[in-house]
Write the structure tokens for this entry.
Amino acid sequence: MDRRHLRQQVTYVRKSLFDQGYLDDQFMQLEDLQDDANPNFVEEIVASFYSDSARLIQNIEQALVSRPVDFGKLDDCMHQFKGSSSSIGAKKVNMECSQFREYCCAGNIEGCIRTFQQIKQEHATLRKKLENFFQLARQAGQAETA
Amino acid sequence: MNLTKEKKSMSTASSSVGWKAGDVVPDQFPAGLRVLVVDDEPTWLMVLEKMLRNCLYEVTKCNRAETALSLLRENKNGYDIVISDVHMPEMDGFELLEHIGLEMDVPVIMMSADGEKNVVMKGVIRGACDYLIKPVGMEALKNIWQHVVRKKRNVWKHLEQSGSVEEGDRQQKQSEDVDHSSSANAGNRRNSKKRKDEEEDAEERDDTSTLKKPRVVWSVELHQQFVAAVNQLGIDKAVPKKILELMNVPGLTRENVASHLQKYRLYLRRSSGVSQHQNNLNSGFITPQEATYGPLSSLNGLDLQTLAATGQLPAQSLATLQAAGIGRSVVKSRIPMPIVDQRNLFSFEFPKLRIGDGQQQQLSTGKPMNLLHGIPTTLEPKQLANLHHSAQSLGSMNMQVNAHGSQGGQNNSSLMQISQSQSRGQTLNEATGNHVPTLLPSSMAQPILSNPVVGGVLARNGLTENGRGTEYNLVSQSSSMLNFPLNSAAELSNNSFPLGTSPGISSLTSKGVPQEEVSSEIKGSVGFMPSYDIFSDLNQHKSHDWELHNVGMTFNASQQNNSLQSNLDIGPSVLSHQGFSSSRRTGQNSNISAVGKPMFTAGDASERVNAQDVGHFNTFFADNSVRVKSEIVSDANCQINIFPEQFGQEDLMSTLLKQQQQGHIASAENEFDFDGYPLDNMPV
């Protein structure tokens, strides 16, 4: 019962992540890839993303503070970050990234800076949520995709 | 999810069945497909690998393009398909794409989070068989095997067809089928067909010019096989169909053979006509040696045959060159410019295309071997390497010319570059490299330094540079050798350099060495076959599209340029080999130098391409598998007008064009792929 309850919780949490727009189809693709050979595939990918994104975020920050601002480089960095975040289906993060790129194209540095704050926030929020989700899933004895 | 479960079971089932590493069990196909995935993002790499494994493919992953390239080079047949991200540090996906297109004919799928039309277009044009937008899902990956099948089918089809068609009638139909589903590719096939234009005037020209990526790269080995087949049949009786059968090379189409044969014939004609073309190369196109080259003055440049004769050019190279030049058969002032065709640039592997040997002069055949001319030859990597070296000097020039489009990386044709560089001298370098510089109309003969890369590049790009329509027919004088100092000895595999430039070009041997030799030879002989086949392919001659994408020849690849440039000192003269009566050369030469070392002393007949120059050429070519089809600038007139001192790309192109128009280029057969480059205008 407890287990069932846990499972229900997992399902619920997972659903809300999608409903609230934190995750998109790509995440489901990852879940699909998870199998007996790679039982923790999703978690591994997410972990990889977060570790890699730290570096990418740093690149962006550097580009943001350097003067004169190199929008081309900024765009490149963000493009990389966006590509990476799309790998796990981080929907909200991605949306902010697109916004950022728009500001970047327009040469609007303030807009970029603002948006970047948003990105970092979403990035951190999602991380917590996913960690929570994985933990729950572990507790439930099985990953959601089971 | 059900899907997962199904997949799992599926995988379980299949995995137990004959799916061995490296094996693609036919009935299990596409299971076991060997995929090489390249992406600098670790997260994506993991995801893709897993996805592909789930499709039952055999996956190899790497995070750098350079790594991927070396993996591919080590084992050319080790992979069925490559999937690569676009944005990567150092070498990006497009560059990788070009290299692969030149060196090994494996389908490449591009991938990117960037789905912008321009970027996608770029991928298509450069020959990617598909373009996926991230995030990439299983559905997209499940079907990638279609590209492998398609490619193979195209090859087969070509082979089949070739059997039935006479030399003269190249059919393009094959190309049609090729095109495949994916958006990309569309032009490729067509392009390859273009090569044939000489007789046919193929519509291909148009097609190809825009699209590059000829798939057939006339490597030295391939050319040798070709020559062997021709000899076996007897030159008179050698028809594409039979040759194809004898060669028995999968993936080779009748059209490929046909156009190659054309060039070869031209080359032979030239060689016989020009007894001593060593200097031809030098004067090759440029100089009035035209006589020797016969009408093919354009080819002069590399009269490969001569070169070959001189023994400098290894037989194979010669073969290749010849092949290239064949197209030119007696092209009188026609600069064979099947530029477009050249896409496939012969990647002639000129192991040693040493133009300089002086012997090349034998390019009497004067056939500008448009090696680059559409005859895709694959320059083997090593050749490219040679080219590289040689091309370095030359390459910088030409390659740039070629490479410009293509990416310098490819050495396409160092030769091309040379030729191009000549004209372009500067432009080339700057140019996207594709401009097949009119520079060399004469020098087109540029050693089709088959930089493996270069060649490939040229081939691919068809030496877009040729836009001018100059086909650099590097007459590959087998003997004369355009010794393209190509790394691998002028393996202009890709470059269909019409080694028109006779001997001079030989110096272009990949070895980079023969600079000495080259100089003289290239002069004129540098096949500048005004037919920038390669280029035409790429760019439609007219448009100065000096975009030899493929011109891998180090032309643009600044990477190689360094080396090339240094080598190419060919002096202006080298470039002008194109049979230009040297008058221009001077101008050109100077440009060429500017270019980075014009590879050939284009045309300037008067100036014998100094060995150095030639040497440069070689390097130049070497680097790039210059597949540039240098148009064979008609000898006489190859005035490389293109080399106006500052050949801006446009200038070069125009010059080349003019030259071509004057009919000089492309002796007789204007193989200009360029759209209507009327050679006649070439100011003499």
User: Anything to note?
Assistant: Chain A has one domain: 3-145. Chain A has six helices and no strands. Residues 97 and 106 of chain A are 14 Å apart (CA to CA).
